[in-house]
Structures are given as C-alpha cells and as structure tokens.
Specification:
about 325 residues, alpha/beta, 11 helices, two-stranded parallel ribbon, Rossmann fold, about 15% strand, seven-stranded parallel β-sheet
C-alpha cells in the first residue's frame, strides 16, 4: 500500500513509519521540513515538505496514495507553555482546517483509507466506569477542535471509504517533555496534575501508540481507543513513576486546584478508565506494556541511556 504520513517527525510518526516500511508499505513522510529527520530516509521513506494549509499542494501530494495517516499536531514545548494564551492556536488550526483539507484531497484522489489522530482524554469524567467508544466525547475550550478532526474522518467514511479515528490516551515515553516535567514535580513531593486520588488516568507508551497506527490499517471504519490494558488511579499512577525514579510516593494536589489551570486543568482532573477492547478485537494489536507499572521503569531507563533529552512533540 502507498501511504502518506503527516506529522512524520513527531513522537508517533517517527516510530510508526519504520514499522510501516518493515510491513512492506511504500511511505511518503510529510513534515514542515523535508530535512527534519534523516533517519526516515535511511529507513526507506520518501521525505517531503508540505504546508498542510496549502490546498493545491496537499492535493498534489495526496494524489496516488492509497491511504493517508494524519498524525500532524503542534503541541506547546512545555507544560508551562501549554497554559499560555494562544498556546494551542496552531494545533487548533491543524485539527480544524488541515484535517478537513487532507480529507477533501483524499476523497478526490480516490484514497480508500484515512486515519486521524485524536485525543482520548476528551471523554467525560466517568468515575469507576469503563469508557468505550460509544461514550460521547466532551472536549473543553482549549481542545474543542478534537471534534472537528474526528468529524473530518467521519466525512471520509460517509463518502464510502474507511475513515478511522484513533483516540490516543495520555502519552509517555523517553522523548516526551511531560516525563521531564512529571519527574521535576515528583522530586518536590507532588504529583503534577490535580485530581481526586482515586480518579483513573489512562495512558499509552509512544511505541504502543505507533504500533496501533500500523494495526489500524486493517480495522473497519470507526473510532478506537488506544490505551494500556490497565488504567491506574492517580495514587497508583504517580506512585509507579515515583518508584521508577527512586522517590517517595507524592501527594496529589486537591481536585479543586484544577480550576486554577483553566480548561486544561478541568479536563486533566477527570476520571477516565478507558477500554482498548474494541481495537484489540478489530485488529491483532495489543500493547507491549500492560500498564505504566511496566512502562515507566522501561521509559526511565531509556531516558537515562539517552541523556533525558526529549524529541519534538509534533511535526
């Protein structure tokens, strides 16, 4: 299959592309700069620079591809930056406008498959209940364009093709700035995200997220949660990270303090116990790490080997 991947140099795209190539696919890796990551070319991908808001350029590039995998995002460079005014404006534009542009081009080019990245933590607070894909998403002000991106993929399906939405749980990996920020907070004795101590947090490693992208090539149209098998309560989640770092278990900031961080705080304080059962049943995918109990020690070890230097979150 000939596949166009946007966001090619991000934490998921840079992992998924070598997997796609190893599976025998022909891959065009699109990012803001064709020189962004020489490793993609070494792996056998065709690198191109693409302005996702240039409709004519997008149409030219999409032409001739059987599938489009849209992993393009534009994330703030730190947790502090994420709270600043306008920090999410470019990401909103990508999810709202670029996703729609790519879908239009893919329909016009006769592509049969479109995969759109999405963000699973936009589900409502469901307490103890498991969250499947039939639960309506409930974005907040800062990330309401998640719904726009998902609607673009749904439009592809309505055109008689296979549109897939991958709702990724909270990422973790050695090249994530969040891991560095989390570790800094834990060293001060506090978990970095206010919430109820018993609220669930669902996550997925970068590597497992990338393998889910490849597995989704064989999935029927629809939305799929991409998450670890076992979501953990906040005390367990940050306790596992503290243990991997050789630190004492942190205190959880009280839930009411989430309001101090605006809509981001409100969203991240929700209890979200996500099920990955639909994706597991539809494909052969399963996460390497059942939970962060196994994933965090491996991540911390990788960070120590690599000097703790995170890669860019988006491309």
């Amino acid at each position: 299959m000939k596949i166009l991947v946007t966001g090619a140099t991000g934490v998921i795209g840079s992992r998924a592309i070598p997997m796609l190539l190893a599976a025998g696919h022909e891959v065009t890796a699109a990012s803001r700069s064709a020189q962004a990551d020489a490793r993609l070319a070494q792996a056998g991908a065709t690198r191109i620079a693409l302005d996702l808001f240039d409709r004519q350029a997008v149409e030219r590039v999409v032409s001739g591809h059987d599938a489009v995998i849209n992993l393009a995002t534009h994330m703030p460079k730190s947790s502090f930056a994420a709270l600043q005014p306008g920090a999410w404006a470019q990401n909103d534009r990508i999810r709202r406008d670029a996703s729609a542009c790519l879908v239009e081009a893919a329909i016009g080019a006769g592509a049969r498959l479109f995969i759109q990245e999405s963000f699973a933590p936009v589900y409502p607070d469901c307490g103890e209940a498991w969250i499947g894909e039939t639960v309506p998403i409930a974005p907040v002000r800062y990330n309401r364009t998640v719904a726009d991106a998902e609607q673009s993929a749904q439009r592809f399906t309505r055109a008689g093709r296979v549109g897939i939405v991958l709702r990724f749980a909270a990422f973790y990996g050695p090249d994530s700035f969040q891991m560095t920020d989390f570790a800094r907070a834990l060293r001060l004795g506090w978990a970095p995200i206010p919430s109820r101590p018993d609220a669930f947090l669902s996550s997925v490693s970068h590597d497992d997220a990338a393998s889910a992208v490849v597995a989704a090539l064989d999935a029927p149209a629809g939305a799929y949660n991409v998450a670890d098998d076992e979501p953990l309560r906040r005390t367990e989640y940050f306790g596992a990270l503290a243990q991997a770092l050789g630190l004492k278990a942190p205190r959880i900031p009280p839930a009411w303090t989430a309001r101090l961080f605006g809509s981001i705080g409100e969203l991240l304080a929700r209890s979200q116990r996500m099920s990955n059962g639909k994706l597991r049943l539809a494909t052969r995918w399963s996460p390497r790490y059942r939970s962060v109990r196994e994933g965090f020690p491996a991540t911390i070890e990788a960070m120590r080997r690599e000097g703790g230097r995170p890669r860019a979150e988006a491309a």
